Amino acid sequence: MDIVFLSRLQFAAATMFHFLFVPVTLGLAFLVAWMETKYVRTGDKLYLSMTKFWGKLFLINFALGVVTGITLEFQFGTNWSRYSAFVGDIFGSILAIEATVAFFLESTLIGVWIFGWRKLSKKAHATVMWLIAAAGTMSGFWILIANGWMQHPVGYVIRNGRAELDSFAAVVTNKFAILQFFHTISAAYVLSAFFVMGISAYHLLKKQNVEFFTRSFRTALVFGLVSSLAVAISGDTHGVHVTQVQPAKLAAMESHWETTTRAPLHLIAIPDEKNERNRIELISLPGLLSLLGHHDINAEVKGLKDFPPDERPPVWPTFVSFRIMVGLGTLFILLTFVGLFLRNRLVESPRYLTVMMYAIPLPYIAIELGWVLAEVGRQPWIVYGIMKTSDAVSPVAVSQVATSLAAFVLIYGLLGAIGFYLMFTHAKKGPEALA
After folding, report:
1. Is residue 274 part of a domain?
2. Cβ burial, residue 200 (10 Å; 0-12/13-18/19+)
3. DSSP letter for each residue of 302-350
4. Is 397 exposed, middle or buried (0-12, 13-18, 19+ CB in 10 A)?
5. What's this model's pTM, rounded to 2 decimal places?
6. Does the pLDDT of residue 435 top 70, yes or no?
7. What does each C-alpha distance from 351 to 106, 194, 204 come to in angstroms?
8. DSSP 135-194
9. Cα(181)–Cα(186) distance, rounded to whole angstroms?
10. Residue 264 belongs to a domain
11. Is 205 exposed, middle or buried (0-12, 13-18, 19+ CB in 10 A)?
């Protein structure tokens, strides 16, 4: 294993572990804010119990997200110093805004929410949670603006061997980043909705606190249905833009080798990394790839052969992750639509509740595979078309990265065990735990 592979592996491990907790907080903040607002408006103390129960799960995930996220920024200096030197003028300013504005605001407001139950009015306290939700979304916005710039760099000039900021407005309004933001945020909302519905389903199957978890389930159900549809719509729009600015990624997503019009979409196939003749096609639909990529069934789609071999993304992980992600996204829409019809007889629908309970891990898998698709499909570029990943690593010894990688796995494994234990025990006890 070389330094590039180990550095990528370490960053991927840290990022994917971090992203086990962040999406839950993004959506759960809005759900908790809605529950507390219902309490303020109706005076129904059941909504107060819901606010505190789901709020504690929000806080557990937020704490773990903070701890696991801090180390990511340090890696830009330790493992990717050449990258930092090249794009620090642009990338560093975006991360600085995220940290000093959005994250600090969110963290401060969370402290106010935790300790302000008896010091603020009901309306003020509920408003704080809405502000927390907005600040969390703002934080995600700046992170995705930074990542979107790496995917499709705009608003820069190359001067003295560095990428320097030329137009901040162009960076912030980068179409790739905006579309990626809406797709990622809506996916995070889906995850949080299934998180709430899955835990609620567990208790409804046991007929525990039926009214409490029925209301929780219904609240998350509507949120999940809208978010699932938003994921599909934003994903289609984002896919068209990817076709325009990252055609090699699209070709790898579909194991599409020959440039052709009316390009087929292979629903089920076994791709080959080096030769399209070895691909095994089981179900193909003529013209569908052209339709999805260009919204024109007769459009031409570039194949992998049109790109130099050293600029082609890895086919297998890109191809497989895309299909599983889309398949799970379709499943989420179906499950929430079914739930909409069963919302008034949830306790009498044990099969559906069982499916929803076991479906909790599925949005986690889908959202992680979405990042695999985005990042592996961008390779071999760390900044698309400008800087290759192999040119971005720090000049350090392989042993140093291997040692730090092992430490990351060990420490993060321990943190994960503690975090999921806390969530599991709190979720299993139900609202009785609040006493």
Report:
1. no
2. buried
3. --GGGS-GGGPPPHHHHHHHHHHHHHHHHHHHHHHHHHHHHTT-STT-H
4. exposed
5. 0.89
6. no
7. 39, 16, 12
8. HHHHHHHHHHHHHHHHHS--SEEEETTEEEES-HHHHHT-HHHHHHHHHHHHHHHHHHHH
9. 8
10. no
11. middle
β-bridge mates for residue 164, sequence order: 157
395: DSSP letter: S
pLDDT the model gives residue 100: 81
- Candidates 133, 139, 137; CA nearest to 34 is 133
In percent, the amount of the chain with pLDDT more than 70 equals: 95
Q: How far apart are CA 259 and CA 257, in angstroms?
A: 7
**Is 250 within the bounds of a domain?**
yes
pLDDT in tens, 333-391: 999 999 888 888 888 888 999 999 999 999 999 999 998 998 998 989 888 888 888 88
* pLDDT computed for residue 270 by the predictor: 64
What is d(CA 231, CA 226) in angstroms, rounded to the nearest whole number? 9
Structural domain total, the chain: 1
The pLDDT tens digits for 281-297 are 556 677 777 877 777 78
Enclosing domain of residue 143: 3-259+302-428
Q: Is the dihedral of CA 335, 190, 413, 373 positive or negative?
A: positive
Tracing tokens 């398949």 back to the chain, one arrives at: 327
Beta-carbon contacts of 127 under 8 Å, excluding residues fewer than 6 positions away, are none
Q: Which two tokens stand for residue 317?
A: 């992980």
The verdict on residue 199 lying in a domain is: yes
